[in-house]
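User: Predict the complex.
Assistant: Input components as received:
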Amino acid sequence: MTVIRAKHVRFSFTSYLIILVSVMFIITVVLSFKLLTVDQCNCAVPETIRYYEIKPKPKSKLISSKHRLAVLVPFRERFEELLEFVPYVHNFLNNQQINHDIFILNQVDAYRFNRASLINIGFLQTKTDYDYVAMHDVDLLPLNTNLSYTYPETPFHLAAPNLHPRYNYNKFIGGILLINREHFQLVNGLSNRYWGWGLEDDEFYVRLKDAHLNITRPENISTGTNNTFRHIHGKDRKRDTTKCFNQREVTRNVIDKQVFMMLCTRF
Ligand SMILES: *[C@@H]1O[C@H](CO)[C@@H](O)[C@H](O)[C@H]1NC(C)=O
Ligand SMILES: *[C@@H]1O[C@H](CO)[C@@H](O)[C@H](O)[C@H]1NC(C)=O
Ligand SMILES: *[C@@H]1O[C@H](CO)[C@@H](O)[C@H](O)[C@H]1NC(C)=O
Ligand SMILES: *[C@@H]1O[C@H](CO)[C@@H](O)[C@H](O)[C@H]1NC(C)=O
């Protein structure tokens, strides 16, 4: 896991560059998985995870918000998106006076992408010092300044289906979701069992529903799906959408029946 702490100061372009370049060298939490062999659906739970202690920067006097936000960004090999994401979101949050730090959770092993685990790790790393987290895609930039990142009393789905450029099903809670520490803990975070791209957020939706948490969404947005967010597309973006066995159907089942199952385990 690579971590960036963005200070609450207006940066010059050079300082951005310095910060961004140092991203590659800063703290890396290595999920010590065994190397993936021929089994593309190897979804074993990591045996060891190394933790690094993270302390927030002292609160800037310029920022008035009393809650502290950890922006958790699952990441792998999209450096050009990061170059755009960090300065942009940092500035966006400063304009809203949000007391925040940005954490880039960099998966460095050879396993399939596990967004859920990265977010869980980010939460564990930050929970003592931050009051809420934003589970944030690296390729989604908020454009409308009404998109509020303030402390959410209930889970707040910023990238709502009527605003997200691509996904518009009712139970969609991916993209950007704000959730406070208590609620994240209440539902025991996300399922670690989703490998590859997608579905873990659908299961998280069920967790929130089962805990009777109301998911709220922005209400005063006059922009639409094409101009509320900017979706950054890397040049050769490939998504690992291979599903393990009938993972998709099982997830649907989970959502329909509101039952939890162990997904994508080794058979
Ligand atoms: C509406 O937008 C403003 C910013 O213009 C923001 O402060 C406020 O929280 C928003 N209200 C809701 C319900 O999202
Ligand atoms: C969720 O919303 C319902 C109806 O608006 C309300 O009765 C309930 O108290 C809310 N639950 C929480 C946890 O806020
Ligand atoms: C922001 O919210 C206000 C109401 O709070 C609304 O009048 C305005 O149209 C919104 N602006 C945008 C760009 O969504
Ligand atoms: C967004 O789409 C609407 C119609 O769907 C169109 O009128 C508008 O110009 C589009 N805006 C942008 C920024 O592309």
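The pocket of 2-acetamido-2-deoxy-beta-D-glucopyranose (ligand 3) is lined by residues 144, 146, 220-223 (CB under 6 Å).
Let me know if you want any component modeled separately.
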